[in-house]
Amino acid sequence: SAQRFDNLYTLHLEGAPLAGLYSHGQPRSPREFAAAQSKIRTAQSQLRQSLAAAKIEVLATNEVLLNAVHVRATPEQAAALERTPGVAYVEKIRPLQAFANRALDVNSVR
């Protein structure tokens, strides 16, 4: 149902994701990678604590391709999250429309 996708937001956090530390498929150095991962996880953990205190549901986190926390929040809460220290910007998640209906029929998935 469309209601499952209401009020979903991605909080893009300040600081590059871990993928930004890779050069030619390899991390720049294990120490640099570990330090960056620890910094991201600490920031996300602190944000998760403040989100829990505000009764905002955390759905998932991402540290590899995005430095982000995905939440379910009211539009008013999302607007307030824009002003949260460490949050670069807030993006509303929009549901995707599947266009592969024929492929599903051909593969007997339906």
Topology:
Blueprint lengths: L7 E6 L8 E2 L2 E2 L2 H24 L3 E6 L5 E5 L2 H7 L5 E6 L8 H6 L4
Antiparallel strand pairs: 1-5, 1-6, 2-3, 4-5
Q: What is the helix/strand order?
A: EEEHEEHEH
* Percentage of residues assigned to helices: 25-40%
Helix/strand structural class: alpha+beta
Arithmetic mean pLDDT? 86
Spatial extent as radius of gyration: 17 Å
Distance between the termini: 18 Å
Across the major sheet, the strand order is 4-5-1-6
| Residue windows where pLDDT falls under 50 for at least 5 positions | none
Major sheet, described briefly?
4 strands, antiparallel
Q: Note the beta-strand portion.
A: 15-25%
Number of extended strands: 6
Report the principal-axis shape.
globular
Instruction: Give me the number of helical elements.
Output: 3
Give an overview in words:
- The protein is of the alpha+beta class and 110 residues long.
- Helix content is 34%, strand content 25%.
- The chain has three helices and six strands.
- A hairpin with a 2-residue loop joins strand 2 and strand 3.
Question: Top keywords for this entry?
Answer:
110 residues; single chain; 34% helix; globular; 25% strand; alpha+beta; 4-stranded antiparallel β-sheet; 3 helices
Structure in a nutshell:
The protein is built from three helices and six strands; from the N terminus they run E-E-E-H-E-E-H-E-H. It has about 110 residues and is α+β, with helices and mostly antiparallel strands.
